[in-house]
Amino acid sequence: MLDQLEVAAEPTRRRLMQLLTSGEQTVNNLAAHFPASRSAISQHLRVLTEAGLVTARKDGRFRYYRLDPQGLAQLRTLFDSFWIDELDRLVADATEEAASEGDS
């Protein structure tokens, strides 16, 4: 599976995900929000799908895209782990600095 954080960080894909928060949409509806071609938007949607952040279903000649709740939960867990690790480092740094100031 692709790196979800890297995939979601790209501005066009991030905007596609934002647009999909309002619900399922076709590539044509999504492409209308971008200066890029429909083909380029389809490529971005394929990457999002491969990363597990978006799912697609075919209905007749249309393919409908929507956010994948499981993939988004995994991305959220990844973000949360970075945040918790960073907070732990900040606390450790502050504690170390306070201890060194007390020694002075």
Describe the protein's architecture and organization.
This is Putative ArsR family transcriptional regulator. This protein has helices at 4-9, 11-20, 27-31, 38-50, 69-103, and strands spanning 25-26, 54-59, 62-67. The chain is an alpha+beta fold. It is elongated, with a radius of gyration of 20 Å. The chain has a single domain (4-99), classed as Winged helix-like DNA-binding domain superfamily/Winged helix DNA-binding domain (Arc Repressor Mutant, subunit A), CATH 1.10.10.10. The longest helix is centred in the last third of the chain and has 35 residues, at 69-103. The N and C termini lie far apart (51 Å). 16% of the residues are buried. 66% of the residues lie in helices and 13% in strands.
Note the main attributes of this structure.
104 residues, alpha+beta, 13% strand, WH_DNA-bd_sf
Rounded to an integer in angstroms, the radius of gyration calculated over CA atoms is 20 Å
Overall mean pLDDT: 90
State the shape. Answer: elongated
- The amount of beta strand, in percent, is 5-15%
What is the class in the CATH system? Answer: Mainly Alpha
Helix content: 55-70%
| Uncertain residue ranges | none
Instruction: Name the CATH architecture.
Output: Orthogonal Bundle
Largest sheet: 3 strands, antiparallel
Count helical runs.
Answer: 5
Question: How many structural domains are formed by the residues?
Answer: 1
Count of distinct strands: 3
The span between the termini is 51 Å
